Each structure stands twice: as structure tokens, then as C-alpha cells.
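Task: sequence design from structure.
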């Protein structure tokens, strides 16, 4: 009887753990390239699992959370323009929002030019906020904190 009770507890723990696993359909990586002594580009890459998507940067009001970037201010650099994607977002009509929304699948690389204010190594820190969905569910908005050093 004692062994049976332990088996039941073990099964319950396994099932609870499997159900409680956090889905992470988007993986982020960051890199940089120094263009010259005064300018560099920060690359923020999203790799998205098959069947999932993230929303574009220009979602109309009343729609899902758009992908957005916030960079920590620093005396070592300043942003040069806005954050751009390497590909154009696809667009589709979503009944739940009653509108066309831009989205990315598989992979997208966002690029942010920065003006360097010194010749020393410069660290760029920021946060990307995004929302991932598939055909059956949308995960709550999420954030990815990034940091990259430009040498």
C-alpha cells in the first residue's frame, strides 16, 4: 500500500510539472557590428517556432501587443533612427481583433543603428516587448532583456 501511494504521488508530480511547463516559442539572440569609429549596428534576432508568430512593430490601436524596443539611455551612445526589421511583416485579418495585423514567422532580424560617443567598448542594453501566438492561443506579452558590447 505504501508503494502504491508513492507511485500515485510520483505520477501526480510528473503530470503537474508537465502541465506547468512554460512555453517559449520565441528565442532571441543579439549581436553587433561596428561600422566605423562613430557608428555601429545592433542586431536583435527572433527565431520563432513553426506554427507560431510574433506581431509587427506597427499594430493598429485595439490590436495585439506590437513588438517594441526600448533602449537604456547612455552617455556612451545615442540611437540613430528607429529599429527596423530585415523583412517586411506579413499581414492577416484576425477575427479576435477585427482588423488586419502585421506579423512575423520563422525568423526576423531587427536592426538599430547607434552613434558611438567614445572610442572605448560600449555596452548597449535594452528590452524587447512582444506577443507570441499560434492558431489556438496567444501567450501573455513577454519581454526579453538584451545586452551587447561593441568593441
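Answer:
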Amino acid at each position: 500500500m505504501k508503494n502504491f501511494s508513492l507511485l500515485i504521488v510520483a505520477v501526480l508530480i510528473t503530470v503537474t510539472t508537465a502541465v506547468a511547463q512554460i512555453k517559449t516559442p520565441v528565442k532571441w539572440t543579439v549581436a553587433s557590428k561596428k561600422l566605423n569609429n562613430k557608428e555601429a549596428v545592433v542586431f536583435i534576432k527572433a527565431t520563432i517556432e513553426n506554427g507560431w508568430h510574433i506581431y509587427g512593430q506597427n499594430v493598429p490601436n485595439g490590436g495585439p501587443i506590437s513588438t517594441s524596443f526600448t533602449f537604456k539611455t547612455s552617455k556612451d551612445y545615442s540611437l540613430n533612427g528607429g529599429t527596423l526589421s530585415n523583412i517586411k511583416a506579413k499581414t492577416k485579418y484576425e477575427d479576435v481583433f477585427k482588423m488586419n495585423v502585421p506579423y512575423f514567422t520563422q525568423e526576423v532580424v531587427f536592426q538599430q543603428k547607434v552613434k558611438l560617443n567614445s572610442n572605448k567598448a560600449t555596452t548597449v542594453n535594452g528590452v524587447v516587448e512582444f506577443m507570441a501566438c499560434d492558431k489556438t492561443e496567444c501567450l501573455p506579452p513577454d519581454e526579453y532583456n538584451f545586452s551587447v558590447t561593441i568593441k
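The mean pLDDT is 89.
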